[in-house]
Amino acid sequence: MFQQLSHAKVFQAYAEKIEFPTTPENLYDPIRYILSLSGKRIRPLLVLMGSTLFDEEKAALALPASTAIEYFHNFSLIHDDIMDKAPLRRGQPTVHQKWNDSVGILSGDALLVKAYEELAKCPAQQLGALLRLFNKTALEVCEGQQYDMDFELRNDVTADEYIDMIRLKTSVLLGCALQMGAIVAEADEAAQQLLYAFGMNLGIAFQLQDDLLDVYGDPETFGKQVGGDIISNKKTILFIKLKELVSTADAKELDYLLNSDIASEPTKVTKMKALYARYGIEDFAVALKEKYTATAYEKLEAIDVDESRKKTLFTLADALMHRVQ
Amino acid sequence: MFQQLSHAKVFQAYAEKIEFPTTPENLYDPIRYILSLSGKRIRPLLVLMGSTLFDEEKAALALPASTAIEYFHNFSLIHDDIMDKAPLRRGQPTVHQKWNDSVGILSGDALLVKAYEELAKCPAQQLGALLRLFNKTALEVCEGQQYDMDFELRNDVTADEYIDMIRLKTSVLLGCALQMGAIVAEADEAAQQLLYAFGMNLGIAFQLQDDLLDVYGDPETFGKQVGGDIISNKKTILFIKLKELVSTADAKELDYLLNSDIASEPTKVTKMKALYARYGIEDFAVALKEKYTATAYEKLEAIDVDESRKKTLFTLADALMHRVQ
């Protein structure tokens, strides 16, 4: 029966049944609020997919782990939004904006504990392994956020450092989600590691694609303002690579574009794109993205289960990477 | 051999061996810093004592749990200090004061995860039980901190609400620490509950005593400024009970004392003490403290182990409650 329902519906049905106390209101209302803002819920689905890849019967057992991953992700959003002073999240006011910083700190803390409460519901035999993987990943996500903040204050960040930052901040959690599903399904260690690597490499590729789409995406389908990263001087892979390669002469123009208010926004985007073109930045970033995508696919291919079982994950990867199926 | 060393030394030797990564510096330096500020380390010792009460041989197995409790306590200090805008902790700059709020939020998060990392090292057979107790307690501590902040904005907090707040914010962690030790030592459920209740009731009594000492303590031995809570309008059990009982006529004087800058500090303290005396506030608070102390001792007495094994815990309780041994 479990297989007949989609993972998304099964997860939603499970998560909706979890009740939070009504008081103290300022602790639990923000948690209900952030969880109600509809995200893509991709991380909990990865847990269930990771489980189903090896054993459909075990996917129901992976529901607490999938909820733990979703809670952890939302905890990190609440705290990151405070640190980044972000007013909006998924088009709605952030928790600290709607309440205040203290409420954001404390409700985030409580949501992290709730994640561990879900973990504690996992099968006892796998609890230790799940907990160790989850802890390792949670620390890496904290490290990634710290590097991201540190990089804002530095002018010498390298492409390698950037890749490592996005690996920690966003990609390891995807690998962790998949591997947790595999652990619950009692997959062997080698298969677990391959699935983790698939998720992590796909996550890096996806983030690089996000940087690319911001500049080269189709305005009709991108959803955000094309060129937004350029306008806000965001340190993307494109920007960082340009900084690495730029000649002394062009560095002056780059500085002007970064620091002057004179250039109108469309002009700034056009001129930055010209600089990117001069140094082959788009090609560099596309090649990098392709490298991580290819590695992700290789890892999934190498897992020793029937190819038909991998279809869902390949389809998901295709969809995320906008590949023709 | 384990018994021959004091619990404090054993804990210190264990905790000192745990290494934190060197980078990112802004994530791990604050953790090293807060852990280096010498607190009383009473909570990790409670874990070890809770274990030794039932089985000396098991105390070494309780070291990860004791470290988890100490890390959790320090995580909550870092985050509470941000929320309370506290500049000093144990006489030194708080983490957010020495670095900034973002560093405080993120390094606190990482320290909470490190607590769970220690938990994951506990014996596999007890991991589920330890994790569930720890999670429940961690949520309660968050609730207590939220109530504490909520109470700052309210004028109608009752004594019962205050007791419940300090129970959640500070006392359940003491009960949890002792019970975790008992779990590792494989004590039966009834004994675990009694030990938990001993710690929780002792914690409430200790907090009430703290409120009392601030007003009635010996300036020679108190360590802090006597009357400090009165001067800062802190909502202690004394203040809250006075608010509950005060007549309309005396309420005017109370309002004046709370809101006027005219009264010099010594005058304010003297006049508040006169109000406390008029309503029997000291006697009320002493009786309440004695009630919780007595309950704590009863719970410890009721535990079914040889009386000689309880001596360390009785001695600790006597010391905390300034009782003649």
Automatic annotation (TrEMBL), chains A, B:
Keyword hit for Transmembrane helix: no
Keyword field contains Nucleus: no
Co-factor requirement: Mg(2+)
Top-level taxon: Bacteria
InterPro entries, per the entry: Isoprenoid_synthase_dom_sf, Polyprenyl_synt, Polyprenyl_synt_CS
Signal peptide: none
Pfam families xrefs: polyprenyl_synt
Coiled-coil annotated residue ranges, if any: none
Keyword line: Magnesium, Metal-binding, Transferase
Family, similarity comment: Belongs to the FPP/GGPP synthase family.
Protein name: Polyprenyl synthetase family protein
Species in which this protein is naturally found: Sphingobacterium oryzagri
